[in-house]
From TrEMBL:
PANTHER family: LYSOSOME-ASSOCIATED MEMBRANE GLYCOPROTEIN, LYSOSOME-ASSOCIATED MEMBRANE GLYCOPROTEIN 1. It is found in: Cell membrane; Cytolytic granule membrane; Late endosome membrane; Lysosome membrane. Residues 403-434 form the Lysosome-associated membrane glycoprotein 2-like transmembrane domain. Belongs to the LAMP family. GO terms for biological process: establishment of protein localization to organelle. Residues 30-176, 236-384 form the Lysosome-associated membrane glycoprotein 2-like luminal domain. Disulfide bonds join C153-C189, C250-C288, C357-C394. This is Lysosome-associated membrane glycoprotein 1. Keywords: Cell membrane, Disulfide bond, Endosome, Glycoprotein, Lysosome, Membrane, Signal, Transmembrane, Transmembrane helix. Residues 209-234 have a biased composition (Pro residues). One of its GO terms (cellular component) is plasma membrane. It comes from Molossus molossus (Pallas' mastiff bat). The chain crosses the membrane at residues 401-424.
Length: 436
């Protein structure tokens, strides 16, 4: 009697797993081979794309996934020494391509550049688009691993381009293969945290660092592969920062801030330290301008953290464009630490609305510096009545809502199936008797 019940529970379990998998598309394996049919690049991941386009009724955001029938194009290459770098080119849909170009030095390799080409004439993805043009976008990435090891990242990893955000899920990538298959050894991404075996409970978003140096002769990632980490402090407390000008408030930001800094100590060892911004010991400045809004935080220990927000007038969006850091590290070989990136495209939302993300976001500024942002809600330029406007949630928060919805729907369906089965069984049991 137990076997039939177990057989009925198994499809339900599969259904729950499938529904939970609605968070993103299914993973696919992509392989690039040389002329001898030997693999030089292998990748296994799923990916989502977020962009916007113009319709007759105005700008529209669209999210779509890399489909399971995506294919590796023959324009992919294993590269040639001092001539070209290995590249993986994936095509899907109506003329869309994702290109990963690799570079290496003596100890590490990386996805030096990622580019995405998308065709607005694809009406399935871009319905009612007023343009049929083909657009392209690109960015450097933080995808890197030791030579002869695979890159492994269970967490979601976002690559922010100018107009496109690519989110990788459960990614395994390796270039410069030595044995025609994935290595058993791996380099875990920073988003997965210090443990190589435990997936983090709160994934990070990642904004790519600036372009690394050319692979020959300079290494694309000069920092040593295994810097020593410092103890991670507690999650920083959230605080509301306000910047006002002659026309009123131009920036309203509620967030907790944490700095990740990698540097060389006086003994030439590499150290990674994490610092929390304490809002109670921070002096807040800022400036309002028609096209730019700035937030300048002068914190303890001579730490200066600067944010610049820009706008895209054509798409009516604001976004975080630049981060600068100046701080003093007494135990560093060079005590003055500076980092800047003025080509970011993070924390963006429609003008008049606010950007909100409950999940932790990690924004890469340089190879040696990134910012963790916790419980963020932010609005730049058009702030009415010193209050946040309508919320535009980050993609990770939206995806995280799918699991309880899917599981709840599956459980509701199960209750309905059991109820129908009970009613049918009861009806059949009464059908065997006749009134005398």
């Amino acid at each position: 009697m137990a076997a039939p019940g177990g057989a009925r529970r198994q499809p339900l379990l599969l259904l729950l797993l499938e529904l939970a998998g609605l968070m993103h598309g299914a993973s696919a394996v992509f392989v690039v081979q040389d002329g001898n049919k030997t693999a030089c690049i292998m990748a296994n991941f799923s990916a989502d794309f977020l962009t916007n386009y113009i319709t007759k009724t105005g700008p529209k955001n669209v999210t779509f996934s890399l489909p399971p029938n995506a294919k590796v194009l023959n324009t992919s290459s294993c590269g040639k020494e001092n001539a070209s770098n290995p590249s993986l080119v994936i095509a899907f849909g109506g003329g869309h391509t994702l290109n990963l170009t690799f570079a290496r030095n003596a100890t590490r390799y990386s996805v030096q550049l990622m580019s995405f080409v998308y065709d607005l004439s694809d009406t399935q993805i871009f319905p009612s688009a007023i343009s049929n043009e083909t657009k392209s976008d690109e960015s450097i990435t933080d995808i890197m691993a030791d030579i002869n090891k695979k890159y492994r990242c269970v967490s979601s990893n976002q690559i922010h381009m100018k107009n496109v955000t690519v989110t990788f899920h459960n990614a395994t990538i390796q270039a410069y293969l030595s044995n025609d298959s994935f290595s058993k050894e791996e380099t875990r991404c920073m988003q997965d945290g210090p443990s190589p075996t435990v997936s983090p409970t709160t994934p990070h978003h990642s904004t790519s660092p600036p372009h690394p140096s050319p692979p020959h002769p300079s290494p694309p990632h000069p920092s040593p592969p295994h810097p020593s980490p410092s103890p991670v402090p507690e999650i920083p407390s959230s605080y509301t920062y306000t910047v006002s000008g002659t026309n009123g408030t131009c920036l309203l930001a509620r967030m907790g801030l944490q700095l990740n800094v990698t540097y060389k100590k006086k003994d030439n060892t590499t150290m990674t330290r994490v610092f929390n911004i304490n809002p109670n010991k921070t002096h807040v400045n800022g400036h309002c301008a028609p096209q730019q809004v700035t937030l300048d935080l002068q914190s303890e220990s001579s730490t200066s953290l600067f944010f610049l927000f820009g706008m895209n007038a054509s798409s009516s969006h604001f976004f975080l464009q630049e981060i600068q850091l100046n701080m003093t590290l007494p135990d560093a070989k060079d005590p003055t630490f500076k980092a800047t990136n003025n080509s970011l495209r993070a924390l963006q939302a429609t003008m008049g609305n606010s950007y909100k993300c409950n999940a932790e976001e990690q924004i890469w500024v340089t190879e040696a510096f990134s910012v963790n942002i916790f419980q963020v809600q932010i609005q730049a330029f058009q702030v009415e009545g010193d209050k946040f406007g309508s919320v535009e949630e980050c993609q990770l928060d939206e995806n995280n809502m799918l699991i309880p919805i899917a599981v709840g729907g599956a459980l509701a369906g199960l209750v309905l199936i059991v109820l129908i089965a009970y009613l049918i069984g009861r009806k059949r049991s009464h059908a065997g008797y006749q009134t005398i």
